[in-house]
Amino acid sequence: MNKFNKVVLAYSGGLDTSIIISWLKENYGCEVICVVGNVGQSDELIGLEEKALKTGASKCYIEDLTKEFVEEYIFPTIQANAIYEGKYLLGTSFARPIIGKRMVEIAIAEGADAICHGCTGKGNDQVRFELAIKAFAPDMKIIAPWRIWDLKSRDEEIEYALDRKIPISINYETNYSKDKNLWHLSHEGLDLEDPGVEPKYDKILEMCTTLENAPDKATYITLNFEKGIPVALDGEKMDGVTLIEKLNKIGGKNAIGIVDMVENRLVGMKSRGVYETPGGTILYAAHKNLEEICLDRETAHYKETVALKFADIIYNGQWYTPLREALSAFVKTTQENVTGEVKLKLYKGNLINAGVTSPYTLYSEEYATFGEDQVYDQNDSAGFINLFGLPITVKAKMDAALALKVK
Amino acid sequence: MNKFNKVVLAYSGGLDTSIIISWLKENYGCEVICVVGNVGQSDELIGLEEKALKTGASKCYIEDLTKEFVEEYIFPTIQANAIYEGKYLLGTSFARPIIGKRMVEIAIAEGADAICHGCTGKGNDQVRFELAIKAFAPDMKIIAPWRIWDLKSRDEEIEYALDRKIPISINYETNYSKDKNLWHLSHEGLDLEDPGVEPKYDKILEMCTTLENAPDKATYITLNFEKGIPVALDGEKMDGVTLIEKLNKIGGKNAIGIVDMVENRLVGMKSRGVYETPGGTILYAAHKNLEEICLDRETAHYKETVALKFADIIYNGQWYTPLREALSAFVKTTQENVTGEVKLKLYKGNLINAGVTSPYTLYSEEYATFGEDQVYDQNDSAGFINLFGLPITVKAKMDAALALKVK
Amino acid sequence: MNKFNKVVLAYSGGLDTSIIISWLKENYGCEVICVVGNVGQSDELIGLEEKALKTGASKCYIEDLTKEFVEEYIFPTIQANAIYEGKYLLGTSFARPIIGKRMVEIAIAEGADAICHGCTGKGNDQVRFELAIKAFAPDMKIIAPWRIWDLKSRDEEIEYALDRKIPISINYETNYSKDKNLWHLSHEGLDLEDPGVEPKYDKILEMCTTLENAPDKATYITLNFEKGIPVALDGEKMDGVTLIEKLNKIGGKNAIGIVDMVENRLVGMKSRGVYETPGGTILYAAHKNLEEICLDRETAHYKETVALKFADIIYNGQWYTPLREALSAFVKTTQENVTGEVKLKLYKGNLINAGVTSPYTLYSEEYATFGEDQVYDQNDSAGFINLFGLPITVKAKMDAALALKVK
Amino acid sequence: MNKFNKVVLAYSGGLDTSIIISWLKENYGCEVICVVGNVGQSDELIGLEEKALKTGASKCYIEDLTKEFVEEYIFPTIQANAIYEGKYLLGTSFARPIIGKRMVEIAIAEGADAICHGCTGKGNDQVRFELAIKAFAPDMKIIAPWRIWDLKSRDEEIEYALDRKIPISINYETNYSKDKNLWHLSHEGLDLEDPGVEPKYDKILEMCTTLENAPDKATYITLNFEKGIPVALDGEKMDGVTLIEKLNKIGGKNAIGIVDMVENRLVGMKSRGVYETPGGTILYAAHKNLEEICLDRETAHYKETVALKFADIIYNGQWYTPLREALSAFVKTTQENVTGEVKLKLYKGNLINAGVTSPYTLYSEEYATFGEDQVYDQNDSAGFINLFGLPITVKAKMDAALALKVK
Fold it and tell me: Which of A164, B40, C373, D364 is the most buried (most CB within 10 A)?
């Protein structure tokens, strides 16, 4: 095993990273500096610094990354309409890179010789953290205890903690594996590991109410976008963090944004998860509705294929790569005119379009109307169809000529 | 103007095609043969033959295309997961080609010298009809009255009809432009022509109840697929037509599959429509859920891009083209193992995954579990990340070396 | 027919546009203002103004667009590596938009009420011109004589000209349809209309010598790029226009860049053409070689798909569209590090890579070597392969388990 | 270390695999069975069985895979036009899977408990071999000595061999790392490891002569294809193996198919190689020329994107995957009409199209001609352009209206 003097640890205060502090000190004889990237996990942050120090860390940074998280990671992803495998809004995926980057900065400032994370060796997050570290400190040593220690289960972890009197608070009721931030809350493990089983939503959901418990009366909201960025809710301008917090409340109350899926992890296996993304789901829907009137067809269709790639790239932790930057440049350019107002009706899990307007709308009632118009010569269609269909005509004639010859 | 002896007309019994019978006879002195392609428009078909003859047609074919429509057009499109612009399930798009093809067959059998349709010169359907005609009879003359006559509005049509005592039944209450078949019902026009306005669903919906009127108690269903084709509902094997009819009822009752969108027409303008596709929406969701466990990642991801192209091709009326055939060959091959059972909960517009199983599932609890396993060596991840991330490492080192040089 | 007072004509001095001056004046009683967009057609420009006035134009603009053509149209297309249908370097395609745009500017300044071009109704250029006009003057009237007049052939044109004593110089020896500019020279028509026939290169080629006549001794050149833009030849910095002129000479002498292809026109039919693009072919090859060491895999591979779309967009005349702009933003971002030096050997039609270097190279001999290295742990490969291949493993196990059950 | 009784080794008779026989026996005490997959490496096969036995193998299979290699791997890849990173014709990539598959069959028949290969831990071939093994025997143990033994260089290998009196024949003159089969010959290593250096072709080339030494007189050939498969050369029908052998001779003599490139390996680093693929290059060019007249535009363009994916998949060793099968189904369907005759002129590295014909040609002189025709109404273009350009018009009008408002 390598020798390290000072290790920076991505700390959450949960069972895993609590144990890791001790484990690092035991195994490397090193100082451990905890870093908590605040990406909106809210109440999970309370008392973390104290806890870290009590558990043996020499220092604990609590870094408020929420603003940067929203503006530099979440909003560009909304602009891209990036959705992984048709369902997942990438809540954990883009949170890891921003934390990883901040950890590198602290590790360098602190003169640390390694960075440690508590991610399992079976998941995506190890990849996302480590790619971020490689991008900013390619020679930095990385310690991933789950890939090397002997602890094989939660029970062994608890035993390890009790042996060493590590302060842990075990929630015996619900111990799905969870990841929470401003954007979403994910749930994995336990009974969810059988895709044949319906999730027990009343036990699982935290950000959202269940569909059945959502109000019987619809909620209407209005969102304003500027160049693809949401800037106001119900007429009130507000910063991105506040906006998402408010939408999470409204959306959660109306049971918006609950997803259950089996997804393909980058590391090769499938996993099943339940995601709650109430505010995010509203923002995606609103943005899509606005794009429908602001983007021309060619741009909109090509952007659909870019969205697929963008989602893969984010999911795979490749945020800090030339391709992600180039895709973002594409996306940003498409958003030049995505400015306008979207009304939505929220009702028991449904997001219903209640009207969309934009100064840049490319929808023209004059062209679209079934009634009389002054702008469109229906005769143009005949020519259009003849040429658009010319390859079909030519092929049909070739087929017919060949068929004749055969006879 | 050309001279024609016998014209085959795509007939619906509505205002447009009723007038067209007279108009054709007046302008070309020709015999008019009506063809109705039954693609599941149900009650719209009642009395059509009689009406056509009374209106001046010499003959009226009512062609039952429902089985072929479901098996040859709808099912391959479900297998592809093709959705136009993220929302539209292509209900009208794939109905036109099958009708167009049948019309050519009848026109040839009847020795007709032209085919006529009542599509507006501003829409997609004229393209879809005419491409189908060109594919099977590239030299057949096509008459599209809306592109050439002087009638400019519904009112002028009615006047034309009254002048000639053409029997028409005008529904003064709701005259959205509609297209109905087994798969869907579309609504366009009137107040929907303003995208800023919320649709009056209680006035519009026919296949579906409104969200508010859907039952407070969820409905559970089970669907079985074989190679991507739905074959049974709630344990009962049934043919495709029956299956869709049943799902339309169940889905409609639960307000499933209502879409409101502004879409890009092939002919260059945007239009706004409301679609009801209750059964289809259920089938897409179920099929997607099943694919999540039956398709490997690479296939699933590439298939997402193919689905976009497939949707464009169908939307644009290019069903009878070599590319559509090649895409279908791709899709069909991917469905080899898409066999299994999907449970869904239907509740007030929501389709909730209630469990999915397959003999071909690629989901492996052993690999996915957070607990201990015997199959996965977490150490493999370290190597994987190092090589997957090698381009990032190399670039970061190059950047660092360059930065040093600059200093 | 419409009435026009003043018409701006895209003028080349050839047979077609010479006749059109008279035809416009005869048919519309209008003043005709000729515009020649100089995009490097060199000797074709000599005496054009005088000729135009003599032929009846009231004014003739000769607009030097070469610099803008190279910097704003050619270079971004090189950066994209855009090639239409695997062969065509888009020489005519991106020349039309820039001329069309300038014509609109002049038409507006002159208060003209229509723009006229001499493109045939069967080709791509009519589309490219007219889309450019629509982009900058959507209400401008467009006159395309070939689509409306009665002249059906070159012979009828000549007769028309002789009747009216229009000064024309007819080259009876070679009358392929040609388009020349700084970037390329295209040839269509005559015996080339039969794809079964080998082109008579000794009669056709003008920019290039034939392969057989190219020197027996190779020519070596060195090109320098900055951010994907060629900036120096053989160590000498020079502007883009000069660079391409010099490369055309060197390339032409060595028979570089001769292409013979059957291509798909936007208007639906196939056509066969021979293209000479000596300098352009060198630039594409050099740029590609440089990208091989400067772009990471993910970017390079995705950029290959973008190049296909970019080529379509350019070919189809959609230069002034939001999608082209967004694709350009993508491409530009990828070129950030495409800076370096490329050596090429030119020999009888061959372009041989003779070495490429860059301060931003991502090629690392240390990683690549077959010998010993200090940077790469070969053990990482085992983990990489296990996870990269995990979907294959899982599927194989599923197949095996199923096979067992069947027994 | 694991214990093994019987190991199947992918044997070539070269230095690496000669040593490996001893190393396996020493380290595992196992029996070693050599397997040579004959994919056309010709003279490299002579005396291999004897050599293997003399070196300590208990058995040596020489498996003739040439016919299967050509028909099941090479031809489908030609049909796809798959080229990796614009240059590489995948010669090694698709040879590995077929050998890997045969090794599994033999390993199972022999009751072996492991398969061993001599690929370096830095390359693609280890991945390609192992993915093939996993596809057919997911639980088979795999031994990759280069990833685990202490030998770090060629010199250490030679020492190891001399120590143990392993019969080896060392070529001190040229020891580029090479891979040869019916399709190609690749060269890596030594001075090629510096991309700044021009390859010494006179020392490197084996299948091809140098450009300078190619004959001064052109060679003409005729190739016939049926459904995208080459079936005859110069009018003589022949099987695929013979055809490629003959084309290799003709092409090699004319210096066709020499490529020098820096490519991106799957395992994350770039490498530089020189490839000779004389016959293959001819087949690709001929097939492309034929497709130009036999495929419609939409199919041809979409197929270009599929070719990129197909090449990646093959390069990455994912031959035995559902995605490759589905892509092949797509490709095969597109080849239905790719039947015809292609003439090519071969001259000093150049492949010049000398005419192409097909009963299924979609090229129509009547449509394409610049002269008069009876089939195409040029007026159709006006309508086509108006609708194709409608999104541009609408956007330009919106822009203009907005600009007015701002004033």
Answer: B40
